[in-house]
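Interim report, section 4.2 (structural modelling).
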Amino acid sequence: MALAKRKSKPALSADNRWRLRKFVADYGVYIALAILLVVAAALTPKLFAVDTIAVVMRQASQLGIVAIGQTIVLLVAGLDLSVGGVFIMTSVVVAEVGNGRNEMIAPAIMTALALGGLVGLGNGLLVTKRRVPPFVATLGMLVLVKGATQAYTRGVPGGFVPEALGIVNQSWFVLSVPLVLWLGLNAIFIFVLRGTSYGRRVYAVGSNIEAARLSGIPVDAIRISIYVLGSLFAVASGVVLTGYVLYVDRFIGSGLDLDSIAAAVVGGTAFVGGRGGLLGTIAGVLIIQILSTMVVLLGLDVEVQFIIKGLVILGAVTLYSVASTDE
Amino acid sequence: MSQAILEMRGICKSFAGVQALKDVSFRCQAGLVYGLVGENGAGKSTLMKILAGAYKADAGEIIYKGMPRHSASTGEIIASGISIIYQELALVPQMSVAENIFLGREPRNALGILDLGWLRARAEELLSRLGVTLDTRSPVSELTIAQQQLVEIAKALSQDADLIVMDEPSAILAGGELDQLFAIIAALKAQGVTIVYISHRLEEVFRIADEVTVLKDGEVVDSRPIQQLDRATLVRLMVGRSLEEIFPQTDHAQGELRLSAEGIATDSILDGVSLRLHAGEILGIAGMVGSGRTELARALFGADPLTQGEVRLVGESLQQLPQWKTPSQAIRAGLVLVPEDRKSQGLFTALSVRVNITIPILSRLSRLGIIRRAAEEGIVTGARQRLSIVMNSPDQETQYLSGGNQQKVVLAKWLETEPSVIILDEPTRGVDVGAKFEIYKLMRQLNDRGIAIIMISSELPEIIGMSDRILVMNDGRVAGEISRAEADEERIIELATLGAEAQSA
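Predicted structure of the assembly:
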């Protein structure tokens, strides 16, 4: 019997294969960002003009703040589709309560945070107590919040956004108010996730909810608090967006809801929970924002933006799933 | 008649850096029964999954019916005559026996309509080849587990299987059902079918196997005709040491009462269980899968609410401790549970060893919610040394540790809470022999410190070797209590299966 001589020779030993996988999972997004910057330097050098950087960073901040919330929700194996509704609600509340009076900005923001907190509480209760899948619960909440906002305004929002909220447009070279807010919130929450017992429990709940419960962690309280935080971040993004346009826009922040999920996922935060973090999301936000800007700088159609964005998301997810699969 | 139907040579396979199979060779001749034995985690199932095409070997070759097999899909492998019957049966519960047997290969007439009559006739014919009669129209969900297994075997025959692998078929069977399975295996053998029978129960292997291959820690220790083996030799080959050496003995006096449960019941199967546990003792809990052992553990721990009865912990000098309703309250009172399924209930596989070990004691380790790194480092280093956990660093994700080290991490986690009572549900499942021995030693050390242990296990030698007293569960109740002196496998099996047989009679 002629024995087949060819022994299939694997390019990498099994041991090196999983090291490579882990490397991709841990550092892939930063490498992708670096490659993107090199490509941008070649294709669209204008991207590196101070003015352009300022614009990119401002938009990145608007997306980045809500993406912090989206990331921590994903960390507990959740998902928050309701952020789009919270943007609109925030915008309407700021205009109604603020009504052009600068001294009412603080109460207006507090009101928006309180209502946003209620939306998050609703999401959290539905997911934990009623065991509604996060996708369905937050989708329902999105429709509810949008509908309630429209019913309240009857399609014609009253009031005016106070002029002083335009402070969010202040900037010093590339350093703008939203950017400082984005970086500051990241610093705080990176510490919360890594250095506090709360952060540990968040990862534990996302990684294995049954083991977390059996370890004595109050899993429902953790998940509800995360949904509330997620909505508060959406309110913060909503305030920044409202200050940017200074009027009530019925479509404010449209697209940012799905982009926030995309940024977190591209940044390595897993849909199954317990894996990922805010540093990756920062890189994910930058990748998405730089890509969008490059499309504009190249003079391509806006539709191309969506195609490229879609390809990047699918590419990232495919890479991560390959990286985490043990055949 | 020395033609080999199957030859696997030099098979290697590793998962995430852990070598599961090292240069394993396995040879089968047509029409014989092969026992494939070894401890849990020895690599038996991995080897068979490679044969089935579910895993791809890192190295080695498979020669089947004289032809080297290169990468093939599971469908092609089944078509070539290899069928594997896993412990978790792959049947569709709502469909009938006949439909399950021919699932995906149903004959259809010109209009694409199912020929039910043909289906039933063929199914009955196959079942009669096995010497059994079943109503081929009844849905599989109405059958007993043993009958479902027969359907799987009939399905394998319908695919013209020449080689049938049975992965621990007896694990899900009660006493009398085993005899029927053995009769069927004998019948298949007479029809020239080759059987690979995976088990770690030696009695079964001696009853049916023609040749036995022993796997240990991913390597073939020996492969011999059954006539050249006796029980003691086989145990030594499997475990690497004799039974006396495995179970460390210490003489300790029974301490005062630590835990008592009076007539507890839950929504699940549990129905009026009482038990008492004393300081420094190991109470073994035996019983078939589904007898309520795990439910008992969860109920004691507060993971499932009690519908009846009460559980009490008794502290030093017989002081009554507050009762608990949730796991976190139980942990605070000093009772912990090391759950049965490490991966799904015990471990945070994507998180580091450090995070896993300190998760239940975070409040103790932090000030104003901020974790004190130095204190945490001390705990983790201490645990690593005490339990000799093998890892690259405390930041290594636990999914990359071996089963034994994973189990040590879970144990370390609970020991840091300084419990007075520990419930261990299948503490050595999927753990290699070395780590097993260390876990046994650790249990004795805990006993010496006065900690009381409840150990649930399916491994009778482990139950008998480690327990001071044994409770046998059956159908949600305690079927009997056996003292260490009168413990033997027959007695336990008798108590564990008595109710089941009385029911079916």
